[in-house]
Design brief:
By secondary structure, the chain is an alpha/beta fold. Helix content is 30%, strand content 24%. The protein is built from eight helices and twelve strands. The structure holds NADPH dihydro-nicotinamide-adenine-dinucleotide phosphate and ligand LZUJQKHR.
Length: 275
């Protein structure tokens, strides 16, 4: 049994698909304590976050007041952490608020623009407060991305297909954008044209990211989160694929980030930097 105080954690988006999974994971982690649960969904206001998550009562009600809940997190023996799985529209303000209160953000919500990310990074640096933004908390995805980066030393033709459930707000996925960013900066332009290509229906060839990596998004009920990186060369196709079959897959990465963010003094973008 450790004599250190548990890390106080606020979960923002606590009633969502990811938020419920995070509440369960924190309830089971001996070195963490859930001190606040926030969500804007009116149907869960005032309900016990543990009951909503399906892990039994935790005596932490779901509130719709992030600022008030962050204040609670500042009144704990050690500095708190805010885990955010909400919506692309609100995440920037949520993270700014957490940093302003000295509560360290661990952010899974996707959709932050490069400018927003850079602004949050400057803000964290000035506040000397750790923050982690990870478009994907699954360790399997990081391994897939790293294999793609290695393959990029030898191959020039790479397209990414990401497939998600039909309740996803943003496209392309944060994971696909991050993968393209990781493949960029090696002084090459991917997918050089070998014909004068005509896109008969706009969008048919996907979006261009990074150094010309093509991204394609599929949205269907029945899917959770999946990504293929397809690498082509004369006479061969190398396909990397990751399938999330349960959101529990993200929890080891989320818990690791909650622990690591307490040691940081600035913003880190990407789970791969913590492994
Ligand atoms: N980094 C990673 O590994 C992963 C990232 N994600 C990302 O996390 C985000 C959430 O995903 P998911 O859990 O599936 O989404 P859900 O829609 O299931 O959950 C989001 C919850 O947050 C609530 N909410 C929306 N805006 C706010 C806000 N400003 N403040 C507080 N609560 C808010 C929603 O309420 P209401 O329904 O009323 O809007 C909902 O209850 C997405 O951006 C997704 O891409 C998802 C999986 C893994
Ligand atoms: O919305 C989701 O579900 C997911 N979003 C993240 C993304 O945009 O990459 C991570 C994962 O793919 C699940």
């Amino acid at each position: 049994m450790s004599d250190r105080s548990p890390i106080p954690v606020v979960v923002n988006g606590a009633a969502g698909k990811m938020g419920r999974e995070v509440v369960k994971a924190i309830a089971q982690a001996e070195d963490m304590m859930l001190v606040g649960a926030v969500d804007l969904a009116p149907s869960v206001l005032g309900q016990d976050s543990g009951e909503v998550a399906g892990c039994g009562p935790l005596e932490v009600p779901i509130l719709n007041d992030l600022q008030g809940t962050l204040v609670l997190a500042t009144q704990q023996p050690i500095q708190g952490v805010m885990v955010d799985f909400t919506h692309p529209d609100g995440v920037f303000e949520n993270v700014r608020a957490a940093l302003a209160y000295g509560v360290r953000p661990v952010v899974g919500t996707t959709g932050l623009s490069d400018e927003q990310l850079s602004e949050l990074s400057d803000f964290a640096e000035k506040a000397s407060t750790g923050a982690i933004v990870a478009p994907n908390f699954s360790i399997g995805v990081v391994l897939m991305q790293e294999a793609a980066v290695r393959a990029a030393c030898y191959f020039d033709h790479i397209e990414i297909v990401e497939l998600h459930h039909d309740r996803k707000a943003d496209a392309p996925s944060g994971t696909a954008i991050k993968t393209a960013q990781m493949l960029s900066g090696f002084g090459k332009t991917y997918n050089p044209s070998v014909v004068n290509e005509r896109e008969i229906l706009p969008g048919a060839r996907g979006a261009l990211a990074g150094d010309n990596v093509r991204l394609h998004s599929v949205r269907l009920p029945g899917l959770i989160a999946h990504q293929e990186i397809i690498i082509g060369a004369p006479g061969q196709i190398y396909t990397l694929r990751h399938d999330t079959t349960d959101r529990a897959a993200f929890m080891p990465g989320v818990l690791l980030s909650i622990r690591k963010v307490t040691e940081l003094k600035s913003l880190v973008y990407g789970l791969e930097k913590l492994l």
